Model the fold of this input.
Amino acid sequence: MIQLIHGDCLDKMRGIADASVDLTVTSPPYDNLRTYNGNNALWGEHVWREVIAELYRVTAEGGVVVWVVADATINGSETGTSFRQALHAMECGFRLHDTMIYHKANPVPNEIGKRYQASFEYMFVWSKGKPKSFNAILEPAKMYGKAKPIKSGRQFRQADGSMKASHGLKYNKPMKFRHNIFSYNLSGSKEHPATFPEPLACDHITSWSNEGDAVLDPFMGSGTTGKVAAQLGRKFIGIELDPEYFAIAEARIHGADGRSERADHAGAGDGASSDQQDETVRSGRRRKARVDAVDQRERA
Ligand SMILES: C[S@@+](CC[C@H](N)C(=O)[O-])C[C@H]1O[C@@H](n2cnc3c(N)ncnc32)[C@H](O)[C@@H]1O
Done:
């Protein structure tokens, strides 16, 4: 089920049932960095405080919110809004499950003032209780097969009667969890000024939800989360204030669950080719299969 809603998310989220959303992957306006066709004038602390409280209400127990954000720099100082949003989420009842980094592998060069090149954004992962789903992204472990000593904490009596702590050997597994800094190439969108990459949406959707789960994006923009959610077999609710961006999102998302239509919209949004988009989704599915296989081996 795909539900796309044109309007103010604060107003429209009130129509979403309590505890009905498994995962939100979203990126709100960053302070006043963009005008969004003139729609950003009403944006401010009073709005994000209420949106985050609403996110808490609609999130299911064990559900997760991924909030991708950065600060504007005003008079030489970052605003700190990102941190204030994370702390407010905790006040609303969320756990700050993880503070992850979205590293931009090819940032737009911007040497401004006495500061280093800005090349990352935050990806706050908030959860309502402990996350109920975690399909970890795995990568090959360099130390695979090497043994490391472990201390079990158990004591064993020696022949002379003395007690000695047991030391066993643990063998490193072939795969390990990916680090919490995710790196992506930016491809940019001609139609929307602030998209995030499809692989970012894919990585979070596969990590924190399962097929059939409900995914929300209250700041849908050009529909990146919705497009990938549809391709990965999730239900999706998207809300966008601006009519022009809403139309772009509609075209991308409704093209996403039918291959022939999808080809028509290839290149919209973040500029990825249809082959790259297909590969993003295929790699999400391969990853899920690998995680299931490791789970099964460990259960056996
Ligand atoms: C950072 S962009 C999201 C981009 C999106 N992640 C993508 O990949 O296309 C934020 C979006 O929120 C929208 N927006 C701002 N205030 C809103 C509100 N109150 N309700 C719904 N959408 C809003 C803006 O028009 C803008 O498109």
